[in-house]
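Translate structure to sequence.
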């Protein structure tokens, strides 16, 4: 499939992407990601590997469109905060000895 990433045309195939990503260790996912094989990679890492371009030269949207067209599953941003992390209001309230629920 022909696609354009960072103004450069690429001929990508699903098997070619799988081969390029084989043996590549997945980085920590902090934004959009794509599942390739059994691993979930950040889209910028995938874009860098398959295009051999600097990550600043293309957008994650360009890579997501290409990977979706090839049949890979793409994911939105992960959750914003892990469960159990107190909010600043809860922390301040606990320090002051108050309750964590606002008064009505």
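Result:
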């Amino acid at each position: 499939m022909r696609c354009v990433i960072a103004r450069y045309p690429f001929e990508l195939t699903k098997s070619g992407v799988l081969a390029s990503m084989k043996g590549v260790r997945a980085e920590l996912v902090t934004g959009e990601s794509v599942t390739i094989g059994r691993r979930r990679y950040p889209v910028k890492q995938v874009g860098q590997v398959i295009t051999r371009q600097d990550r600043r030269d293309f957008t994650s949207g360009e890579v997501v469109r290409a990977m979706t067209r090839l049949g890979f599953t793409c994911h939105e941003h992960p959750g914003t905060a892990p469960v159990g992390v107190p909010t600043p209001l809860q922390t301040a309230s606990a320090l002051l000895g108050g309750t964590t629920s606002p008064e009505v």
